[in-house]
Design goal:
The chain is α+β, with helices and mostly antiparallel strands. It has two domains: 106 residues, Aminopeptidase, CATH 3.40.630; 205 residues, Gcn5-related N-acetyltransferase (GNAT) (Aminopeptidase, 3-Layer(aba) Sandwich), CATH 3.40.630. The protein is 26% helix and 33% strand. It contains nine helices and 18 strands. Strand 11 and strand 12 form a beta hairpin. Helix 4 packs across helix 6.
């Protein structure tokens, strides 16, 4: 197991806006709510071929079960399978959703299947939006769902000891931070959107009027530190430059707080953005990004995060690199669950 987190091994999970805490004392797991009330107890043990999680007692399994499963894979980040001993109806529901399989009478939870379930991470899980077609600026594409409000995603980051969230951009409360960030020289070098508060307001109002784009704010324990623009690639300016599929998503990002830049933070927010976009619609099988071609730090981070850099190309306003992340690689590899490795010591 990993080194202890917060005394005894512990993990936090936020499900539909409700906080859960899973503590691990030598394999004895307890799942408590935000009020400290004990909901269930479990036993987690290392096995010969995979860890095993046993339900011991508690209330009827619901969100506390999701919390226990999510925590078990955090406590065993290099394992992709987990034997589960729990009430049959709950095991059957996991199997029906592709999160588990029956192997010779034993329920095996698949990490790649669990990570694609929305409950442990999405604040507002929703079924796929019914497919119907529309036109935008001469481009035919699926109609997009209404933009969510409030918190949309949460994931506890063990190596930071904080909960990372994505929230929908609020024009009143988030605009001052965005204005400050856009005028930071590090951000301005790549975004080139310096200017007044009124200019930033007009910029965001334009995005909020466009169903193609979801402006989002990155937070750690509630403190805003970055901004993300998630977009549907089919009707975006990037579409002519590659073979865009109907549910491809893309994103732009800026990290506004200098204290939240660096490898430990990149390995927290970058896969969290990808995780949210893949969970938001299960038909999304690819993510794309087009940073400036000379943004070498971003390109390195993308490669470490499982993206492939497919090519460089010329937008009217910049030379860009096209990065792509496959859903299959993201969920099968799941290296993003592990803490980032410390850099090698200098030879000098």
């Amino acid at each position: 197991m990993d080194a202890p987190i917060d005394g005894p091994l512990a993990h936090a999970v936020r499900i539909a806006g409700r906080d859960w805490r899973v503590e691990n004392r030598a394999g004895a797991l307890t799942v408590t709510g935000a009020d400290g009330h004990l909901h269930s107890r479990w036993e987690l043990r290392a096995g010969a071929d995979m860890p095993a999680l046993h339900w011991r007692d508690g209330q009827a399994i619901a969100d506390d079960g999701w919390a226990a499963l999510a925590a078990a894979f955090v406590f065993h980040p290099r394992d992709s399978r987990l034997a589960l001993d729990a009430p049959a109806n709950w095991c059957a529901s996991l199997a029906a959703r592709g999160a588990a399989v029956d192997e010779d009478g034993r329920t095996t939870v698949l990490r790649t299947g669990l990570l694609q379930q929305p409950e442990p991470w999405l604040a507002q899980p929703r079924p796929p939006y019914a497919e119907r077609w529309t036109m935008s600026h001469g481009k035919r594409h699926p109609a997009r769902p209404k933009r969510p409000q409030g918190e949309v995603y949460a994931r506890h980051i063990p190596w930071l000891g904080k909960t990372l969230t994505l929230t929908a951009f609020d024009l009143q409360s988030d605009l001052p931070d965005l204005h400050r960030w856009m005028n930071d020289p590090v951000v301005a070098h790549f975004w080139q959107e310096t200017g007044s508060l009124d200019k930033q307001r007009a910029y965001i109002e334009g995005l909020l009027a466009d169903p193609r784009v979801d402006p989002l704010v990155l937070r750690l324990d509630g403190r805003a530190f970055g901004y993300v623009e998630a977009y549907w690639a089919k009707e975006d300016r990037i579409a002519p430059y590659y073979d865009a599929r109907d549910y491809d998503r893309g994103w732009h990002v800026l990290i506004g707080e200098a204290g939240c830049r660096g490898r430990p933070f990149v390995t927290a927010w970058q896969p969290s953005v990808a995780h949210y976009l893949f969970l938001d619609d299960p038909r999304t099988t690819r993510l794309v990004i087009e940073p400036r071609a000379d943004n070498h730090k971003m390109r390195r981070n993308l490669l470490k995060g499982g993206y492939a850099i497919l090519k460089e190309f010329d937008f009217p306003h910049k030379r860009a690199a096209l990065g792509m992340l496959l859903r299959e690689r993201f969920f099968d590899d799941a290296a993003w669950l592990r803490a980032p490795e410390a850099p090698a010591p200098s030879a000098s």
